């Protein structure tokens, strides 16, 4: 299986570390990307790291991952709770998908309790802060390496 991993971040995550640190912490998305690249070097994964505020761009990257990537890690941000289109795109991808949320969405407003993406994801990590991305990459590596 391909060792390419797409790590996709949805809307407003470009503001990570710049606003609402009490919910999302102090690390920026650039810090997250740096740490994920270091871990992927260790795990021998080839990381493609993206963020977009536009639903169609996330969908296009999922399409690009089809036939190219061994797995997808995705924090769909607010699209988690609204986007059947992202779910449909992920359903057209064959490899493992791990959904990440920095905050514990289940401790928050009830509209954050439902995820369309969870209907597709092999695993969901929530409330572990930005460390959740590292946990997700380790899980993807384990699933790729599984005989
Ligand atoms: O906890 C998560 O990772 C979320 O996916 C983050 C989304 C939210 O809509 C989900 O319910 C849970 C929001 C991302 C916005 O990120 C910001 C970061 C810093 C400052 C402002 C927004």
TrEMBL record:
Annotated metabolic or biological route of this protein: Metabolic intermediate biosynthesis; chorismate biosynthesis; chorismate from D-erythrose 4-phosphate and phosphoenolpyruvate: step 3/7
Biological-process GO terms, alphabetical: amino acid biosynthetic process; aromatic amino acid family biosynthetic process; chorismate biosynthetic process; quinate catabolic process
A Pfam family this chain is assigned to:
DHquinase_II
Q: Site annotation (Transition state stabilizer): which residues?
A: 19
Q: State which Enzyme Commission number(s) the record gives.
A: 4.2.1.10
Amino-acid biosynthesis as UniProt keyword = yes
Name the UniProt key words of this record, in alphabetical order.
Answer: Amino-acid biosynthesis, Aromatic amino acid biosynthesis, Lyase
Q: Which residues bind substrate?
A: 75, 81, 88, 102-103, 112
Q: Which InterPro entries match?
A: DHquinase_II (IPR001874), DHquinase_II_CS (IPR018509), DHquinase_II_sf (IPR036441)
Complex formation = Homododecamer.
Q: What family does the Swiss-Prot or TrEMBL record give for this protein?
A: Belongs to the type-II 3-dehydroquinase family.
What name appears for this protein in its UniProt entry? 3-dehydroquinate dehydratase
Recorded source organism is Rhodoblastus acidophilus
């Amino acid at each position: 299986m391909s060792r390419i991993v797409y790590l996709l971040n949805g809307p407003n995550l470009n503001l990570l570390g710049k606003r609402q640190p009490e919910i999302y912490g102090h690390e920026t998305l650039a810090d997250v990307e740096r740490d994920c690249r270091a871990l992927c070097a260790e795990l021998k994964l080839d990381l493609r790291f993206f963020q977009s505020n536009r639903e169609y761009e996330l969908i296009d990257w999922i399409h690009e991952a089809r036939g190219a990537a061994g797995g997808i890690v995705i924090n769909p941000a607010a699209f988690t709770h609204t986007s059947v289109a992202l779910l449909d795109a992920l359903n057209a991808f064959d490899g493992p998908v791990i959904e990440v949320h920095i905050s514990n969405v289940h401790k928050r407003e009830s509209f954050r309790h439902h995820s369309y993406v969870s209907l597709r994801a092999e695993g969901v990590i929530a409330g572990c802060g930005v460390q959740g991305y590292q946990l997700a990459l380790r899980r993807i590596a384990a699933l790729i390496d599984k005989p």
